[in-house]
Amino acid sequence: MRAFAVIDGSYVAELDGHERAVIAAVVADVIELLGATRPELGALATRAVDPPGPDPLAQLRIRTQDVEPPADTAVRRLLPDASTQDPDVAAEFRRLTEDDLRTTKVAHLRALWDALVDGVGDGWPDGPLVVAPAAADGLAAALTDVRLVLADRLGLQDDEAAEALVDEVTAGDAAEGDVGEHVQVRRYLGAVFATVGWLQETLMDVLLDDLDRR
Q1: What is the percent of the chain with per-residue pLDDT over 90, rounded to a whole number?
Q2: Disulfide-capable partner of 169 in 190, 197, 199, 210 (CB 3.0 to 4.6 Å)?
Q3: How far apart are CA 126 and CA 191, in angstroms?
Q4: DSSP 3-state helix, strand, coil percentages of the chain (rounded to 5)?
Q5: What is the per-residue DSSP string for 149-179?
Q6: What tens digit of pLDDT does each residue of 27-60 get?
Q7: Which residues, 6+ apart, have CB-to-CB distance to 124 below 8 Å?
Q8: Rounded to 5 degrees, what are φ and ψ at 13?
């Protein structure tokens, strides 16, 4: 894996086939958590996209009924309450914004999925992950959402816990031994969490550097 760099006007990272497959699987999980159809490799070419309506207000959706906060704690991190002090404000904000927020997040995640599976045929190829500058903000947001879900599943509540997990994963890689299934799963998810965070960090670095140059 190589960090994002600016190449021919695009932001490009190098991933091997295994890295692509693992990250794409987690991205698909998050899309499904948000209530959208899980993307599958065989369905890429036939995925339906609704055409925009002739009226720009035709797609505007305003709920008239309250929306219950998500029961899944990971989804609750993706769609948090707008206020922790005023339940009425939180409920009203959720009623007005949650549908559109879900749609936006799914769109960003699908763009990340498409970038990861671009060129996939009989197997997951090694090669560049190419991000257009105009899409970088959305893909960075998608990587953030993937990390939020992984952090919830791993029980990470703050940066200190996240750093401790990275240390644990590194130590686990260095020390081969007989460990239980729970530890193996934790190290696996921790490695994905660290990888996604590193990709997000290097993407934001090149994005900000590019903006400074411009």
Answers
A1: 51
A2: 190
A3: 19
A4: 60, 10, 30
A5: HHHHHHT--SHHHHHHHHHHHHHHHHS----
A6: 999 999 999 999 987 644 333 333 344 444 444 4
A7: 17, 18, 20, 21
A8: -120, 155
Instruction: Give 56-115 as a DSSP string.
Output: TTTT----SS--PPPSSHHHHHHS--S-SS-HHHHHHHHHHHHHHHHHHHHHHHHHHHHH
Please work out, in degrees rounded to the nearest 5, the angle formed at the alpha carbon of residue 106 by the alpha carbons of 186 and 187: 10
Q: Which residue has the tokens 């560049």?
A: 128
Average pLDDT over the chain, rounded to an integer: 84
Asked whether the CA dihedral 35, 40, 44, 48 is positive or negative, the reply is negative
Three-class SS state of 37: coil
The Cβ-side half-sphere exposure at 141, using a 13 Å CA radius, reads 16
Taking only the tens place, the pLDDT of each residue in 5-24 is 999 999 999 999 999 999 99
CA distance 127 to 171: 28
What lies within 8 Å, CB to CB, of 182 at 6+ separation is none
